[in-house]
Design goal:
InterPro entries: Fe-S_cluster_ET. By secondary structure, this protein is of the alpha+beta class. The protein is built from two helices and seven strands.
Length: 81
């Protein structure tokens, strides 16, 4: 499972930070940061989700009010928009 985070879409509500500790606040930018992620495209960050964090990652994606976070299974199928 992996997660994709579109930092450009983020509006800085930081609800993802409350749901999964892989997200951190960047108060200066007014956006969240996905720790240990790789930037695949401009402002699109991707990281693998450890098995023990899958539940929290899904909640972080669901909590985002602007759907800046998506979760995909190992086959590339989107689980959470």
């Amino acid at each position: 499972m992996h997660i994709e985070y579109d930092r450009d879409t983020c509006i800085g509500m930081f609800q993802c930070v409350a749901e999964w500790d892989a997200f951190e606040k960047d108060e200066d930018a007014g956006k969240a940061v996905l720790a240990d992620s790789e930037e695949r495209e401009e402002d699109l960050f991707v990281r693998e989700v450890p098995e023990d964090a899958e539940f929290d990652a899904k909640f972080a994606a669901r909590a985002c009010p602007v759907e800046a976070i998506a979760v995909y299974d190992d086959n590339g199928e989107q689980l959470i928009p």
